[in-house]
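Holo prediction — magnesium ion.
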Amino acid sequence: MTASEAKGVLARPGDTIGILGGGQLGRMLALAAADLGLDVHVFTPEKDSPASRVAKKTWVAPFDDRDALREFGASVKVATIEFENIPPDAVDLIEDEGTPVRPNGRTLATAQDRLAEKTFFREIGVEPAPFARIDHPDQIQPTLEKLGGSGVLKSRFAGYDGKGQVRLQGKILPYPAWAEVGQKMAILEAWIEHDRELSVIAARSADGQFVAFDPPENNHGGGILRASTFPSTAPKAVLDEAVSLAKKLADALDYVGVLALELFLTKDGKLLANEFAPRVHNSGHWTQDACFTGQFEQHIRAVCGWPLGDPTRHSDGQMLNLLGVEVDAWEQHLRDGAKLHLYGKRHSPNGRKMGHVTKLKPRG
Ligand code: ATP
Ligand code: MG
């Protein structure tokens, strides 16, 4: 049995849990953990990170610092991650030393490589947008034609917020496109003319219990999430199907914790998977204000082996990301009655996620 296959309660109130990564997701996880009587240790290469300022202790070290990882692992009962690009080796090392990490290294490796991720989707019967592997710029034009002449080239590794992607249509210049995604292994995906984008945020416990939040509808601008609206106005049958796809994914990964599945709803009513995130997700940030149990608390409960909470939504509304200088409107949002969540980032260069607001109204 690997450490992550451990069952039962892994940490009790008063114990310390670990978070790999120091961004806003780690911060909100740490706040939820504190509310449940847990102390948090953070491991991040970044000094003065959003998570470290609400944690008891932080290791500031690169993810290949094996001594620091060992020390961190030994100081916590169980660890989790707040972004998916943590090297699986770092997770494996902590597990080999006897501390469970949820989700496990195998799940991370699948999520980190878009090719592995989409191949896995196909294998388990969660249909992704049509895609093909690209290892050389000369493959781009013929593959684009096979995919219908309109697509998006995505680097296989390390993309987020639309970075490492380029939209392609018709006759293209393959070398500049290749340069734009970092001249590394890539995939080319057919462009999906979608009616809307949905996501399913759901939790699975170590004993296989699965609970999902009502799927929100998501609007992106320039590849970055701008707003999530809940509930989605898509037909109930579509939303039920979306949740069942997320369950299929979570079961296939033997997943423990909260995960998110991003989906396109095509114009003819079909759901296609875009990607999954093995963690709490930006499109679920409203759940902490609009549901009996929010995604951050839910994730901590699952990771610690505690009973999952009730994800029922008590309010309708919208979550808006505050990007860059948009955060300067914080006071106005408070006056307007929105719930404000700021991530404590020191600088606000354009586009950086600085916080979010949730606008609530009673459930209709
Ligand atoms: P994030 O971190 O925000 O999830 P990412 O860098 O992982 O972003 P994707 O989720 O692949 O990138 O793409 C970002 C957005 O770009 C999608 O949510 C969608 O709006 C648009 N997009 C990506 N791929 C496609 C596609 N094949 N067809 C249509 N739109 C797409
Ligand atoms: Mg995405």
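READOUT: The radius of gyration is 20 Å.
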